[in-house]
Amino acid sequence: xxxxxxxxxxQWIPIEQQTIFRRTWLYVxxxxxxxxxxxxxxxxxxxxxxxxxxxxxxxxAFYNLCPHRAAILSPQAGIHPCQKLVCPYHAWVYDLAGxxxxxxxxxxxxxxxxxxxxxxxxxxxxxxxxxxxxxFDDTAPxxxxxxxxxxxxLGQHRTAATQxxxxxxxxxxxxxxxxxDNTLCDYHVAIAHRTTLNQVQGPIRHYQHQLExxxxxxxxxxxxDWQAENPILPALQGRSREGFFTYGIYPNLHLLGLPNxxxxxxxxxxxxxxxxQVSLDLYGDPEFCPPTETLLAEFEAFMQEDMVLTESxxxxxxxxxxxxxxxxxxxxxxxxxxxxxxxxxxxAGAVV
Length: 352
Known about the structure:
Blueprint: H1 5-8, H2 12-19, E1 25-30, E2 38-44, E3 47-53, E4 59-63, E5 78-81, E6 85-86, E7 93-94, E8 100-102, E9 122-128, E10 131-135, H3 143-146, H4 150-154, E11 163-172, H5 176-184, H6 189-192, H7 198-201, E12 208-211, E13 215-221, H8 224-229, H9 239-242, E14 243-249, E15 253-257, E16 263-272, E17 275-284, H10 292-318, H11 332-347
Antiparallel strand pairs: 1-10, 2-3, 2-5, 3-4, 4-9, 6-7, 7-8, 9-10, 11-17, 12-13, 13-14, 14-15, 15-16, 16-17
């Protein structure tokens, strides 16, 4: 297992950005948030990016910087309408395909200057079920391969009637890996979440685990109580109709799916070595899912329990007295993801 030093030494933050986050697929958000002719300026893995939907509806991702002198093209963070990107430094103009279409005082450049050579630098963007992912690494596998069995089991949850139901962010006083570990931990659910999450996941004897290349799964049949209180989304078939899917996705993402069509993303972003931002995004068909207030109350109940635990664990890591203990079989999903982290650090020669 990772040592306490990996959760408390600030030297790991820039190393992780380069060796982990810059080399795999990263969840961004729901692509439907961007209408044609809109851009989203945001930071991903420490890099300023622009997520763009052009007037033809195509999504693209670019670095949010001008190739001329590295000025940030769109300093205003967030989503806003945009037909052209104009650099605030020297007024170079880019269209939403990333092509350079305007250069002031062009005649003052050498005759060898070619606009085509100074398009915005792009990066990979792919979608699954309307959700946007980006990747800095051209050698990473396609998104569909990276997601493993997720499209098979959760690919029908999103329908034409699916809507954003709730979105909320939380600042937690723990390292991002600490919170990721906790959400992967199936050993603590029946203990720490006895009256909350455990009521949906049911008894440990019904837990079914599946470890894949980059994702892992805890599958549990929905309880009789849950079935009595919730309708089933008609589009679902087989196991997707019958169980609760809890996916851990390398390096910092979780996706939960229920037979009523609910999809819940938990996204964990590092802030400092001892703090992270946890984003909760809920999607579903209002006809089949509980009201937003009920959903938020249910999720926040077990998430608050986890925040108390992870902040306590962070203090334990910082004590200088901890060495990793034995691994329970119900912690297999933690080990699966930690091995991916170890491998990424080792490949870059960063393991200590």
